[in-house]
Specification:
Blueprint (H helix, E strand, L loop, with lengths): L12 E7 L5 E2 L2 E2 L1 E7 L2 E2 L4 E3 L12 E3 L6 H13 L6 H12 L7 E3 L4 E3 L12 E3 L3 H4 L2 H4 L16 H13 L2 E7 L2 H13 L6 E6 L13 E5 L4 E2 L2 H12 L6 E6 L7 H18 L1 H7 L8 E6 L3 H7 L4 E2 L24 E5 L15 E3 L4 E3 L5 E2 L4 E2 L8 E3 L4 E3 L3 E4 L4 E4 L38 H37 L1
Helix pairs in contact: 5-6
Length: about 500
């Protein structure tokens, strides 16, 4: 999200104040409330911005919190939001799909430019587009392979699970006894469950996909897919879609439910955590009477949050009961996040869960082993530290213990006597402050400050100095133009005199 508001001297950051009641809407649902902060204090006016897009190029919605919006502007905004909605409703897409599967193979076409299943009556309209022919039933059951992935890492980030990771997750879920999977932003896992359920009668796992990519509504019914924004907990289908999700979360006949989510890595962690807590509250509400009788109303819905390991402290801020597993999740369409690489090239994506770590069995054929002290499976390079009494590695490499820092650090780090901490061998000493820049507290950096969103620091000049500088530049340009104009006029006069 582009920084907006009052410019500050020195580093600044955006703080997410969360979803506000009566927030204005953009095409992605209710906007979120932000404020620019410095040293832990609010600086400047609060403002609303798009919940899903952190880049103003993707969605340029912006409104001051205290701004009075005219009726004409409100009407224009509503018209803009309507114009950016999909051409077909979910119900219409379901009906179109039913007609599509009845067509003979030779008449099944998919427009690659519009990313849309085409009926024969629509061929002429798409005649100058590239399209795929002879769409098979197998392709229709694997829409993630038919659709182009949306790879904006801050909005969609459809990095799709590789078959290895997807199969591992599905086997793990079934072994743990879960029969309902709420797939939030995990279309590859959802379609694997759907495909297996249609092929094997004994397979009794069900899945509901919540995703912001409306293209999946072409392939799934309202009971299988809900158009959902995980950054503001917005169901685009309204109360009907919300009720579909609520019913799915109801554990009928002892069918256990788990949420598996794979959010965009560039997304705001606090916004995601807020939505996930609301989904947990929705699940808890379905069994409210049972939980109150058992005396644990604060029980959490089982969850797998798939995210890079360097967000561990941010996730634990919101879900202290979570722990990180060593399993390396890999993706088909990501150049770096691949299985089998070594050293720093290993995939940094891990599984965060509120389940007991000892029940998460990782594949021993891939080198994972069970640590009897930590009571969990760890990677082959994650050696137990006798001093820390933990398997301390986060990135798959063997970490080393620093006696001075009293903790294990990365193998490429060395203790610096000037900085009084472990860091890279080649670094500039004395540039780090004693505490967090934002709140001033020790123990964490600005990027991991609990009071702030995980957003980039923006070094910006003082507002008044910037304005003065711009004025000077404008004055210089004007003087140059004036001088050029004067010289040009004098030359014209001289040329006229010569001619006469």
């Amino acid at each position: 999200m582009a920084a907006a508001g009052t410019q500050l001297p020195g580093p600044a950051a955006l703080a997410l104040l969360g979803p506000a009641p009566g927030a204005p809407c953009c095409p992605h649902g209710p906007a979120l409330l932000f404020v620019k902060t410095s040293q832990g204090k609010e600086e400047g006016r609060r403002f609303y911005a798009c919940s899903a897009c952190r880049d103003r190029k993707d969605c340029n919605f912006f409104q001051w919190e205290d701004e009075k919006v005219s009726e004409a502007r409100l009407a224009a905004r509503e018209e803009y939001n309507r114009s950016h909605q999909p051409c077909f409703t979910h119900r219409q897409n379901v009906d179109r799909y039913k007609n599509f599967v009845l067509l003979p193979l030779s008449k099944r076409r998919f427009c690659q430019e519009c990313q849309q299943l085409l009926l024969p009556a629509e061929w002429k309209k798409h005649s100058d587009h590239q399209f795929l022919c002879d769409i098979t039933t197998a392709q229709l059951k694997s829409p993630s392979q038919l659709l182009y992935p949306l790879e904006n890492k801050k909005t969609n980030a459809q990095y799709l699970f590789a078959d290895r990771s997807c199969q591992f997750l599905l086997n793990l879920l079934t072994d743990l006894g879960f029969r309902r999977v709420l797939s939030v932003g995990t279309p590859r896992l959802h379609e694997m469950i759907q495909s297996k359920a249609s092929q094997e009668e004994e397979f009794n796992v069900r899945s509901l996909l919540l995703d912001i990519d409306f293209r999946y509504s072409q392939f799934y019914t309202e009971d299988e897919f809900c158009h959902y924004n995980m950054f503001n907990h917005h169901f685009f289908g309204g109360e009907a879609a919300r009720e579909t999700c609520r019913k799915f979360l109801c554990e009928e006949n002892g069918e256990r439910v788990i949420m598996v989510t794979d959010p965009p890595f560039g997304g705001l962690v606090e916004a995601l955590a807020s939505s996930f807590k609301k989904l947990m509250a929705m699940w808890r509400g379905t069994e409210k009477e049972v939980f109150s009788l058992l005396g644990h109303d604060n029980r959490e819905m089982p969850m797998f949050w798939i995210f890079p390991y360097f967000f561990e402290s941010r996730i634990l801020d919101f879900f202290p009961s979570f722990s990180m597993m060593d399993y390396q999740v890999d993706y088909d369409n990501h150049a770096l996040y691949k299985h089998g690489k070594t050293g720093r090239r290993q995939s940094p994506v891990r599984i965060f869960t509120n389940l007991t770590p000892s029940v998460i069995v990782l594949p021993e054929e891939e080198g994972y082993r069970f640590c009897t002290v930590c009571q969990r499976y760890v990677s082959s390079g994650n050696q137990h530290c006798e001093i820390c009494n933990l398997c301390t590695s986060k990135d798959g490499r063997r970490w080393k213990h620093c006696v001075l820092c009293k903790k294990c650090v990365k193998p490429s780090w060395f203790h610096c006597d000037n900085c009084k901490c472990c860091t890279l061998e080649k670094h500039s000493c004395g540039k780090s402050d004693s505490g967090c820049f934002v709140c001033g507290k020790a123990g964490h950096k600005r990027s991991a400050c609990p009071s702030l969103s995980h957003s980039r620091a923006a070094w910006q000049p003082d507002k008044k100095k910037g304005q003065k500088t711009r004025k000077r530049i404008k004055m210089r340009i004007r003087k140059r133009l004036a001088m050029k104009h004067a010289i040009f006029s004098k030359r014209k006069v001289k040329n006229k005199k010569k001619k006469t």
